[in-house]
Specification:
Helix 4 packs antiparallel against helix 15 (about 385-395). Helix content is about 75%, strand content about 0%. By secondary structure, the chain is an all-alpha fold. The protein has 17 helices and no strands.
Length: about 475
């Protein structure tokens, strides 16, 4: 009986490690144990509050503050620009301070700026408040990614899938709560929505404080028997942190041409976000006969598919080489989306509606693959001794896309009509080939010194590693 029970437990453990367990089971036992479970719950509450504010902010600034369309666009543009700076700033600070403390600081910063909206009415002050909120939001997302690399280790792809599933569930819940306040439509109702988002930051900060990171760098503390995974290489820890290792200074992402090439190419690998949220609704309204009531269905399809499929897609493309393959599939999927959008013009109501719903499914599949490839490659292509600063730079690609993507779609792609979509799809597909090739070459360059180091430990001579700043 004992042996049978032991075998059953072993099979259960193997199944969990392989990711065959269901979503809820994985959320109960995520990679990283108790600290990861607490962080995932904190992210769920954070994104619920963010979903509340995201659904209400444009209407709040329009009907409560009284901004016209021009000033509202400038306000949101300033937020996007500030968000670009949030990622590298968070990565730079994470090399010197504990991730947990920095993340708590981001939650408190957003708490302060959001509460300030209740009292600020001058446009110049609003610019500063919204910019600081966006900077804190982007920095917090980068710090959450760093937390995952440290607490989840090699199972970071599974953790990221769980994170995205819980985050999307939070966004959906927040949007539902916002609908209640928007239905009321009074100033007090909008203020209640702001306070609800502020409350989510308070609770998230309190939960992050319980994750148990010790003072110092490089490790997430294990509590109550949970396993902790070191983020830095042993050599970096022996050197006492992010400073020089073996007499050499830690590499800088800003001087690493191969990594900067990855970040630059990763910007168009995030365009599915703008296609879903900007391109698809505007194309439906201005270039097809599909009913306008179909627009909410796009977001419903996206949210449901991400929650249901993210874990399975992450398992399918786990590991850096499979993630590099996902980049190519991403490009082909975006190309298919663009071709269908081009063909939807002039189609009948039912045909256009069916085509656009298929596009919503395909663009969500592209998002699922992008979330795996961008995440895994950003981590795998970065040197261990400077991973925090590298991931901070990698996080800029999403922020740049959020600022430039809508302008690209509205100012160039849709202005050119169907030909614009075909050109965009071909460009993304071509760039995905370059991104995959560049990533595979850099992975090979990174793996070669590690293999040589392994031979050196076995008593064989060790050759010096090539510089990461050389082209990959």
């Amino acid at each position: 009986m004992w042996r049978a029970g032991e075998n059953a437990k072993g099979r259960r453990d193997v199944r969990d490690r392989r990711g065959d367990a269901g979503l809820l089971a994985q959320l109960r036992r995520p990679p990283g144990g108790r600290p990861a479970r607490i962080m995932l719950f904190a992210q769920l509450l954070d994104r619920t509050g963010t979903g509340v504010w995201s659904a209400a902010c444009v209407l709040y600034f329009t009907f409560v503050v009284g901004l016209d369309a021009g000033r509202l666009g400038l306000l949101l543009g300033a937020a996007g620009v500030a968000g670009i700076a949030g990622s590298p700033l968070a990565g730079h600070l994470a090399e010197r301070f504990p991730v947990r403390s920095l993340l708590i600081g981001c939650h408190l910063l957003r708490l302060a700026t959001l509460c300030a909206l209740l009292f600020v009415t001058r446009f110049e002050a609003l610019l500063l408040v919204v910019a600081l909120t966006s900077l804190g939001d982007r920095a917090a997302k980068t710090l959450e990614m760093l937390f995952a690399t440290r607490v989840a280790g090699e199972r970071r792809a599974t953790y990221q899938a769980l994170s995205r599933s819980s985050a999307n569930a939070g966004y959906a819940l927040g949007a539902g709560l916002a609908a209640i306040g928007l239905a009321v439509g009074t100033r007090e109702a909008y203020q209640a929505l702001i306070l609800a988002n502020a409350l989510s930051f308070v609770v998230a900060a309190a939960l992050v404080r319980r994750t148990g990171e010790p003072e110092g760098h490089g490790r997430i503390a294990a509590r109550n028997g949970d396993t902790a995974v070191p983020e830095r290489a042993a050599g970096a820890e022996a050197a006492g942190g992010p400073g020089p290792v073996d007499g050499r200074p830690a590499p800088s992402p800003w001087r690493d041409r191969g990594y900067l090439r990855f970040v630059l190419l990763d910007i168009p690998m995030n365009l599915e976000d703008s296609i879903l949220n900007v391109g698809l609704p505007l194309w439906l309204v201005h270039h097809t006969d599909a009913p306008h009531a179909l627009v909410p269905a796009f977001l419903v399809i996206n949210t449901v598919l991400v929650v249901v499929l993210q874990l399975r897609v992450s398992e399918r493309f786990e590991g850096p080489h499979r993630a590099a393959g996902a980049v190519l599939l991403y490009g082909l999927t975006v190309l298919a989306c663009c071709v269908l959008l081009a063909l939807s013009t002039g189609a009948g109501t039912w045909t256009a509606s069916a085509v656009l719903l298929v596009v919503a499914v395909l663009v969500t599949l592209a998002e699922l693959m992008r979330s795996v490839s961008s995440w895994e490659l950003a981590v795998s292509l970065a040197p261990l001794e400077a991973r925090a600063s590298y991931l901070g730079v990698a996080g800029m690609s999403q922020s740049v896309q959020k600022s430039a993507g809508p302008l690209l779609l509205t100012g160039a792609v849709m202005a050119a009509g169907p030909a614009g979509w075909l050109a965009l799809g071909a460009a993304v597909a071509g760039l995905s080939v370059l991104q995959r090739r560049s990533s595979v070459r850099r992975l090979a360059a990174l793996e070669a010194p590690r293999a040589v180091a392994g031979h050196g430990r076995a008593g064989l001579p060790v050759q010096p590693a090539a510089s990461l700043s050389e082209p990959a």
